[in-house]
Amino acid sequence: MIESSTPTMLDRTEQAHCTVCCCTLANKILMVLFMVLLIFATLFGNLVTLAVGYLKASLAVADLAVGIFVVPLSVYAEVYLMVTDSAPEWTSYNSQSVSFHPCNIIGPIFAGCTLVSITTIFFLTIERSIAVLRPLHKDSVITRKRTTILIVLSWVGSFFLAVCPIVFSSEIALEYNSCSRMCNYALGTIGKFPSQAWNILLLFPAFDFTLLGGTVVINIISLSSIRQHSRRRKHLAESESQSTTKPTFSDIKAAKTIGTLTVAFTVSFTPIAVFVVGNVLGNKWCNFSFFAFWILATNSCWNVIIYSVRDQKFRLRAQKLLMPFHGKNTTKT
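The structure assignment produced for this chain is given below.
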């Protein structure tokens, strides 16, 4: 989401041909194929997720936005570069140089949806922890109205934070960066970084890891409770009165799935957090930025992969979604 400076048109042309992902035509083709596959995987998987609860649907919508808006713009820019051997004109300027820049829309969408994903995982963790730690209070605490309010607050707060850098600092612009191959926030110009912009840009990793840290702690508490429950179940015979105060098997499995999601999200966000801090301190890390940003982009598929592996109901929904296509193919044959 963040880069340190705005390269000139000549710098961009040179960088576009020398980064590790794009040194040869074969590398460029593999990069574009990766982007296209990421689009299809994100769209298909998250369309299935839309049918699974309010919070999961919110997570799916955020991931779908990345697959519909963010990645296709990168595909267009890279295909244009391969075909014409020159980058699109708008990639040579930042958002402060022209009246309209595609990154004015795509940049905040990527940042906002990334923040929505993190807050949703945090809310899912709280939801599952209540089901595990206070199973009798689950239905009274977790209601549709409260969940809807949390979702709205998540989206409004995340997108407000996403536009904060360009609203509250004249030093920050948006650009299509030739290192990361996507729309990023650009900090200042060549030279020292303004302290005010420095603080604003650090909001992203601070917010991300505050929520992820809280999510990890809650998961540890929930998983410890699950472990204690499993031990008691091995040594004690369960009476009816005991079983009513214990979490159900589905709640336990869901809590473990959310724990796996938290680990995956933390792994996805760690490289970009390291890059942001290093970039703000003056390190460009061009090659590293490509991998950091696209590892973050693949995060849009992690929830689909994890649910397809660990959730049988999710797999059944995916099979039902594929059944019409399979039926058409069999009737043709």
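Interim note for the steering committee: The chain is about 75% helix and 5% strand. The beta strands are 2-3, 172-177, 182-187.
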